Amino acid sequence: MQIGLMEGTIRRETLEETLDVVATHGIHHLQFHVSAGNPPLAKIRKELDARQIKVSALSGTYNMIDPDVEKRRAGLSMLRYVAEQCEALGTSVITLCTGSRDPHNMWRAHPDNNTASAWKDLVESMEKALIIA
User: Fold this and answer.
1) Measured between alpha carbons, how far is 106 from 66 in angstroms, rounded to an integer?
2) pLDDT in tens, 17-54
3) Dist. CA 96–CA 79, nearest whole Å
4) Contact 89, 57 (CB under 8 A)
5) Strands (E), the chain
């Protein structure tokens, strides 16, 4: 077993500074978050490799049971983008989370989380995620 961190647990001003601190702590595995705002993948990979840090997983987390269908569609689109980055970053693992019916916070408990409609939305979201996978 290897110790790893979620990228973002340690943040500095630049990618290089952040990865330097991660490596200083002896961490060589990250769950990384990619987005359109990241530096180019080649640069990310170069900086990770220079510090012997492996991307163990990419974060594909979005609110899979969000009550807003458009937000779920946007999350699925983001998941597709993340999946497209896996090979370049050397991983085949994408993390997910079920989410919450809470319209403002996907990490907050909500009474509707345990409803049949939430389960239906989760199954539909997972079926779509599996197609992407």
Assistant:
1) 7
2) 999 999 999 999 999 999 877 889 999 999 999 999 99
3) 9
4) no
5) 5-6, 29-32, 54-59, 94-95
Q: Could you report the per-residue pLDDT of 87-133, keeping only the tens digit for each?
A: 999 999 999 999 999 999 999 999 999 999 999 999 999 999 999 99
**E-strand spans in 1-130?**
5-6, 29-32, 54-59, 94-95
Token pair listed for 55: 């991307």
Residue from 68, 7, 1, 67 nearest 32 by CA: 7
Cβ(59)–Cβ(30) under 8 Å? no
- Token match 């987005």: residue? 35
> 15-24 and 41-50 are packed helices; what angle lies between their axes, rounded to 10 degrees?
30
Sheet with 54-59: list strands edge to edge: 5-6, 29-32, 54-59, 94-95
With H, G, I as helix, E, B as strand and everything else as coil, classify residue 59: strand
